[in-house]
Amino acid sequence: MALIWDDVHRRDVYDGCDAVLIPEAKLTQSEPESRRLPRIELVDVVRGLAILGVILFHTVWDLRFFSFTSFDPVWDPIWLGFAKVLVNTFLGLVGVSLVLAHANGVDWPKFWRRWLILLAAALAVTLVTFFAFGDAFVYFGVLHAIALYSLMGLVALRWPVWLTLLASAIFIVPPHLWPNPMFNDKWLAWIGFWTEHPNTEDLVPIFPSFGAVLVGVAIGRVLIDSGWGARLAAFRPGNFIWRGLIWCGRWSLILYLLHQLVIFSVLFGLAQLLQPGHEQQVAGFKGQCEVTCGAKGGEPGYCTRYCQCALGIVEEGNLWEMINRPNPDPEVQTRIDGIASLCRAMAEAGPIEMQPQA
């Protein structure tokens, strides 16, 4: 994929599942120019911003994992909201890109070639996470979802905008109104409607996630039908920041697959060299424990007692390695559950009042 172009000799056009650069000379009568839509650089820029956001989120998570900080983005509502915005941005762009690429007909060979690349990347994520996290492996994460939703979204390419938005609401609204514990089962959770997040490192269920793709399809139709697509395609500031974001957007799949490997490797080496302090580990455990307890409805006093109890047991038994395992075996999990049960009982009993000595 060419990344630098000369407007005199080339022009950016949408083609296939994703937008690519097509040399002017390759446009023939069998591929009429009417099929080729001007590439909207703003779409690449938004995708580039989204992938940079993903890298930022994972960097903060990795810093917490290696005890460089006690802050855990997984339990912070602002950061959780940020993560949801990123996921839905990618899904919305799937819908927009489908419309822009196939507005005048689907080029099936190119579509399937790019779809198979995406599917291979998704399966690679499943394989790597299976060895890294065991039973918590990713079986329907972002890439799996995009692969499926790219197929599902083709059905809506010719729908009127009002029908597309109505369909998106059918996917977005019901799981918030009618959650069902039946879908807590791991092999049903990819549909949606679960009441508790299943044991997997990433999950992008059809309900409500496909609704974001349909919103993107509706936006794409508006861009084409209103003529705004051509106007946005003409917007090309061309400065180095803009070009950098375009580069990130066009290589977002590669960046998504490789960034964690690079960040994790660098921080692992720094952790071996710097040995982050025990105080950070203690503060991180206590902070995460109290946030988790509060998120489950615990009162502040109860959560403080519960976390002090758990921290005391972990410190006394030097159980840090055990509780930090990403995928504890049944024996370890039973021990962790026992600690949790004991501390819940002690926290519910209330603070221990010291009796005055005679």
Describe the structure.
- A hairpin with a 2-residue loop joins strand 1 (10-15) and strand 2.
- The chain has helices spanning 41-65, 77-102, 108-133, 142-153, 161-172, 174-177, 206-226, 228-233, 240-250, 252-274, 278-295, 300-317, 320-323, 330-348; strands at residues 10-15, 18-23.
- A two-stranded antiparallel sheet has the order 1-2.
- The model is unreliable at 1-13, 15-35 and 354-358 (pLDDT under 50).
- The chain folds into two domains: 10-268, no CATH class; 278-348.
- It is mainly α.
- The protein starts with 9 loop residues before the first strand and ends in a 10-residue tail after the last helix.
- The relative contact order is 0.12.
Name the descriptors:
mainly alpha, 2 domains, two-stranded antiparallel ribbon, 14 helices, globular, disordered C terminus
Explain the layout of strands and helices.
Elements lengths: L9 E6 L2 E6 L17 H25 L11 H26 L5 H26 L8 H12 L7 H12 L1 H4 L28 H21 L1 H6 L6 H11 L1 H23 L3 H18 L4 H18 L2 H4 L6 H19 L10
Antiparallel strand pairs: 1-2
Mean pLDDT: 85
Number of domains: 2
Instruction: Determine the number of helices (DSSP H or I, runs of at least 4 residues).
Output: 14
Q: Poorly predicted ranges (pLDDT <50, ≥5 residues)? A: 1-13, 15-35, 354-358
Overall helicity:
55-70%
Strand content: under 5%
How does the major sheet shape up? 2 strands, antiparallel
Rg for CA atoms: 25 Å
Structural class: mainly alpha
Number of extended strands: 2
Identify the strand order in the major beta sheet: 1-2
Termini Cα gap: 84 Å
**Helix/strand order:** EEHHHHHHHHHHHHHH
Form type: globular
